[in-house]
């Protein structure tokens, strides 16, 4: 069955990014020349997804506006003969159909995904977390969809992390199935130090079978008192199987201040217009020549 829909939870308060995220959603913070949420939506579009479901909360309307058509702005840009910019803005508003669902209580990622059950319906879907930007030749989501075509079961994207960082992630334990792919046996959300020997950390890309919804419904609050997606995923893995896929590419935690700076550098030096000058500037800074 073709995977058509992608869920992007954006309801979080962004407390890790205060004060920057006080009055604007953290998803609207810019990496080079576009907000981080645009990279996420573009990854979904480049992977063949046809509809985006945003899980929002109060104060997140800037995200919906960013992907909407702005008649007034378009008219002004055309009058001023700024055709290229008008074209780029129209490209953004024509990217894909976006619908929003409100997460009515901040009960965690699992609850945010559960809030989309009626809009997703009975079909497999992708989840992309807005904090995780992935730089790769082939979009991370597309890599996972190719595997999904083969295994027809839920998939979580993983990366190896240093053992002293496992407590920051959902951790997967399992047996190798083939290159870069593992059959999931166990999952633990943010394990306490010493409770796992696995370094396979879940990053914010999932393909889920709709069976996850009833499992989410019966999931009790877990780590941090929140309804954890990872806890429901373990039940799904036990019920019908799940794979962990070590994607090709580099992931940036753009919800973290240092991760965000790293993303700006990585995306900046690859920017078609600014990349060469920016690369040179960074070399100069590193050599102590420029500030
Ligand atoms: C969430 C998930 C966690 C995953 C992480 C990836 O945690 O709960 O399993 O490893 O995203 O970014 P959060 O970072 O929202 O605390």
Provide an overview of this structure:
The protein is of the alpha/beta class and 291 residues long. The chain has two domains: 5-253, Spore Coat Polysaccharide Biosynthesis Protein SpsA, Chain A; 256-291, no CATH class. 35% of the residues lie in helices and 25% in strands. The protein is built from eleven helices and 13 strands. The chain has a five-stranded mixed beta barrel. Strands 2-3 form a two-stranded antiparallel sheet. β2 (30-31) and β3 (34-35) form a beta hairpin. α3 (71-79) runs antiparallel to α4. The longest helix is centred in the middle third of the chain and has 12 residues, at 140-151. It is globular, with a radius of gyration of 20 Å. The mean pLDDT is 94. It binds 1-O-phosphono-alpha-D-glucopyranose.
Write the layout of secondary structure elements.
Blueprint: E1 5-9, E2 30-31, E3 34-35, H1 36-46, E4 51-56, H2 61-66, H3 71-79, H4 83-93, E5 97-102, H5 109-114, H6 117-120, E6 125-128, E7 132-135, H7 140-151, E8 154-160, E9 170-178, E10 181-189, E11 200-208, H8 212-217, H9 229-240, E12 242-246, E13 250-253, H10 257-268, H11 275-286
Parallel strand pairs: 1-4, 1-6, 4-5, 8-12
Antiparallel strand pairs: 2-3, 6-11, 7-13, 8-11, 9-10, 9-11, 10-12
In short:
Helices cover 35% and strands 25% of the residues. The protein has 11 helices and 13 strands.
The total domain count is 2
Summarize the biggest pleated sheet. Answer: 5 strands, mixed, barrel
Number of strands: 13
Distance between the ends: 54 Å
- Assigned CATH class of the largest domain: Alpha Beta
CATH architecture of the largest domain: Alpha-Beta Complex
Bound molecules: 1-O-phosphono-alpha-D-glucopyranose
Computed Rg: 20 Å
**CATH topology-level fold name of the largest domain:** Spore Coat Polysaccharide Biosynthesis Protein SpsA, Chain A
Q: Oligomeric form of this entry?
A: single chain
Number of helices: 11
